[in-house]
């Protein structure tokens, strides 16, 4: 099996649109790497370049020790699963799954054996003789996956494979995907704009914005140590509070509430980041707490999302509290724990140490 390497990949369609800029990354065998970013950031472009459906303007693509940059798609031994499933409507499920293998002139007996094998963990029994039109969305998705898996490709590419499924089914198939791909011994590149999918499925996540790689890290690091303001705001729901604050000597000032800056940060202004789930209610008798007024409470079921206006400012702060906590009527005392704070440079957006 083979590692996938992207080297300074660039794709320019025309001078106004530059969807991909100098993307370099390695994906190991069996690694599940997710490209995550907002719509239009260059995710599908990256997959199409890897698959060979488009040529890069600059850069190289390697699979193991093969430079495949100039190779035709059919020579790369890559399997791709699309959002639209791309099944042949006139063929049975069996023939759909077998289609890629038949093209490669694999003997019928071996095709049958491979299909039986994926059938065992995909549960397609009873569906093999049907046509795609007689399947539900989730079943079609499984057929598209089966077609990729029987190929035993050197690289798997999946472009938003769950986005046509309803929420409940998406959750179920997501868990199945994780199981299926945990057994695969090839690099897996998965594209999504859904951070929950990225966080739950991936070994590592590559966050893209405007064609630039923002951060490449484990899901945990992406959440706990976002590399810049973009990643901080993109990952996490509800979104991280990102507050532009003026500094006074060793503190950032949130209204009248001074927040000590880490030793190495000495700027006239900073952006303070704190996730709503890390803001907590002050305990009785606790001093130096943040005062504010509750402007809005949104009931999210397992928690309440409060929008709080910080006293003496027009700054809004969102806090996620469990519904069993009581905070009185309108006035609220909050604490921003030092260990949960993130600091960003307002000029560059980069994380400050
Ligand atoms: N064939 C094309 N010609 C011109 N622009 C394109 C083409 N394909 C994609 N783009 C542009 O490139 C950018 C990235 O697109 P894409 O990779 O599809 O984004 P996404 O991250 O949503 O998958 C978008 O601005 C898109 O409009
Ligand atoms: Mg796309």
Give your account of this protein's structure.
The chain has 353 residues and is of the alpha+beta class. Helix 2 (93-103) runs parallel beside helix 4 (137-149) and helix 3 (108-122) crosses helix 4 (137-149). The protein is 24% helix and 31% strand. The strands form 4 sheets. Strands 6-7-8-3-9-10 form a 6-stranded mixed beta sheet, sandwiched between helices. The longest helix has 16 residues, at 167-182. It starts with a strand and ends in a 9-residue tail after the last strand. It folds into 2 domains: 4-234, P-loop containing nucleotide triphosphate hydrolases (Rossmann fold); 243-344, Nucleic acid-binding proteins (OB fold (Dihydrolipoamide Acetyltransferase, E2P), Beta Barrel). It has helices at residues 43-51, 93-103, 108-122, 137-149, 167-182, 195-201, 219-224, 229-234, and strands at 4-11, 20-27, 32-36, 58-63, 66-67, 78-81, 155-159, 188-192, 204-209, 212-217, 241-248, 251-254, 257-260, 269-274, 280-281, 290-299, 304-310, 316-321, 331-335, 342-344. A hairpin with a 2-residue loop joins strand 11 and strand 12 (251-254). The protein is built from 8 helices and 20 strands. The mean pLDDT is 93. It is elongated, with a radius of gyration of 25 Å. The structure holds adenosine-5'-diphosphate and magnesium ion (MG). Residues 43-44 line the site of magnesium ion.
């Amino acid at each position: 099996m083979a590692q996938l390497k992207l080297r300074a990949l660039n794709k320019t369609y025309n001078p106004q649109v530059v969807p991909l800029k100098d993307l370099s990354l390695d994906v190991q065998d069996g690694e599940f790497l997710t490209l995550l970013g907002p719509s239009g950031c260059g995710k599908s472009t990256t997959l199409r370049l890897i698959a060979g459906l488009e040529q890069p303007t600059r850069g190289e693509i390697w699979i193991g020790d093969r430079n495949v940059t100039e190779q035709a798609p059919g020579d790369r031994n890559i399997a791709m699963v699309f959002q639209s499933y791309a099944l042949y409507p006139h063929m049975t499920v069996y023939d759909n799954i077998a289609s890629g293998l038949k093209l490669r002139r694999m003997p019928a007996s071996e095709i049958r054996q491979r299909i039986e094998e994926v059938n065992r963990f995909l549960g397609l029994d009873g569906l093999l003789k049907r046509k795609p039109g007689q399947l539900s969305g989730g079943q079609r998705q499984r057929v598209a996956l089966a077609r990729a898996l029987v190929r035993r490709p050197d690289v798997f590419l999946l472009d938003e494979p769950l986005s046509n499924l309803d929420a409940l089914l998406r959750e179920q198939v997501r868990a199945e995907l994780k199981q299926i791909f945990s057994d695969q011994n090839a690099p897996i590149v998965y594209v999504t704009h859904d951070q929950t999918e990225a966080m739950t499925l991936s070994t590592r996540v590559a966050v893209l914005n405007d064609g630039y790689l923002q951060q490449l890290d484990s899901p945990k690091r992406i959440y706990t140590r976002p590399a810049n303001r973009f990643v901080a705001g993109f990952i996490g729901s509800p979104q991280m509070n990102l507050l532009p604050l003026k500094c006074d000597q060793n503190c950032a000032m949130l209204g009248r509430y001074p927040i000590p800056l880490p030793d190495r940060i000495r700027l006239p202004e900073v952006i303070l980041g704190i996730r709503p789930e890390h803001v907590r209610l002050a305990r009785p008798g606790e001093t130096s707490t943040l005062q504010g007024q509750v402007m809005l409470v949104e009931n999210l079921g397992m928690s309440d999302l409060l929008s709080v206006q910080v006293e003496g400012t027009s700054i809004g702060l969102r806090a996620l509290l469990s519904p069993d906590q009581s905070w009185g009527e309108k006035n609220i005392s909050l604490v921003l724990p030092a260990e949960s704070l993130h600091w960003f440079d307002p000029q560059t957006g980069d994380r400050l140490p």
